[in-house]
Amino acid sequence: MASEPACIFVTGTDTGVGKTLISAALLHAYRQHYARVVGMKPVAAGLELRDGQWVSDDVQALSAASSITAPARLTNPVALHHAMSPHLAARLEDRHVTVAELLAAQRELATLCDAMVVEGSGGWRVPVNDTETLADFAIALQAPVVLVVGMRLGCLNHALLTAEAIRRDGLTLAGWVANTVSPDMPVLAENIDTLRQTLDAPLLGVVPWSAAPDARHITLELPAP
Ligand SMILES: Nc1ncnc2c1ncn2[C@@H]1O[C@H](COP(=O)(O)OP(=O)(O)OP(=O)(O)O)[C@@H](O)[C@H]1O
Ligand SMILES: C[C@H](N)[C@H](N)CCCCCC(=O)O
Ligand SMILES: [Mg+2]
């Protein structure tokens, strides 16, 4: 039987904290160790019309950072037009998204790769339907979790609550990344230190604010296997 690929689930303290950028950087880091590395965005909510095609920026960024091309039905089984919570975006399209269908895609994708980075949508407990959340998908995966902390005022509370929820859900917080999404956050270093002391998980990297962030130029530690 083929061995299971390395797989991590990337969540964030919120939407817009740089999960996509950090997931792409993690894909580049995995490529130093594994040949077949692929990103998955199980649910993309918010599509753009480009050259006559509806595309997800997140899916495109993960695909650009992957070393293999896999079918879109596996790397992004659910693509919803509206930029809103997945359960509401799905409702507008009369679609019922289930954790089971996301898991089926992930299982098939796992047969094609040696390492996989799965990017969540929004924060930890974002609904995908009226009864299930993306956290349920992460639980089904039993994957270690990497938390992207968008360094801005309010992030300490969000980071600590998210870490608590991940652990209460029985998963391992394998590491966290301090992503500087605000160019002028006061006492940034002190905030990072506070999280170093309280999150009780490895800090995989501190990413500075950049006017044009590029995942290829971000160096991150990988979580311990
Ligand atoms: N270190 C950084 N410096 C400057 N801008 C950043 C940085 N990290 C992320 N950004 C910008 O912040 C915005 C939001 O980031 P991004 O879309 O990656 O968030 P996300 O957490 O993936 O959101 P979603 O929940 O929609 O997937 C993007 O425009 C991105 O380029
Ligand atoms: C549209 C956005 N960029 C993400 N794709 C989805 C964010 C869902 C957030 C839901 C919530 O927590 O209120
Ligand atoms: Mg994203």
TrEMBL record:
CDD domains: DTBS. Its cofactor is Mg(2+). ATP binds at residues 16-21, 58, 119-122, 179-180, 208-210. It catalyses: (7R,8S)-7,8-diammoniononanoate + CO2 + ATP = (4R,5S)-dethiobiotin + ADP + phosphate + 3 H(+). Keywords: ATP-binding, Biotin biosynthesis, Cytoplasm, Ligase, Magnesium, Metal-binding, Nucleotide-binding. InterPro entries: DTB_synth_BioD (IPR004472), P-loop_NTPase (IPR027417). Mg(2+) binds at T20, D58, E119. GO terms for molecular function: dethiobiotin synthase activity. It is found in: Cytoplasm. SUPFAM superfamilies: P-loop containing nucleoside triphosphate hydrolases. It holds the Pfam family AAA_26. Belongs to the dethiobiotin synthetase family. PANTHER family: DETHIOBIOTIN SYNTHETASE. HAMAP family: BioD (MF_00336). Homodimer. This is ATP-dependent dethiobiotin synthetase BioD. It comes from Rhodoferax saidenbachensis. The gene is bioD.
